[in-house]
């Protein structure tokens, strides 16, 4: 029987703090990082194809030797971006030889990032794994080291506004219209077979092309 299983109370506390990590980053509440990361915590970001070499973004090597260095970079780099992280439940294990005072955690993550434009501009989707070590301080737990390994990244940029909408035409069904700023006029297509699937109202939503 495995002896490195983390008890529920400790695992739940670490999971809650990891959720707070994501929410604090997504909402740019950088000061809250002191609630879950040590001042000397290290942060490193790599790609799965080159796992031994930190990534470089905007001329910055993505390896930081303490919390303040990481937060200073993040606050400036991300000030005009919108993004969200979604992490899995995680794999948590006690680190051997640490008398139950260190926990290794591996979290899957999917993230989306884009600029402030709502219907055009940059958008990217990525995924990977956080490899972390959490250390016990008193009765609490904090990140000692974080290493993110990116396994997926896809980005695109649209220079033109676009939208998709539909109009209910009664017995004739629906008319789907796609508008692109590049063409300056909509393209419309009849969709009679969808008439019973959608409410009898005009509507529109954004479409990235």
UniProtKB/TrEMBL annotation:
Coiled coil: none annotated. Residues 14-147 form the SnoaL-like domain. InterPro entries: NTF2-like_dom_sf, SnoaL-like. Pfam families: SnoaL_4 (PF13577). This is SnoaL-like domain-containing protein.
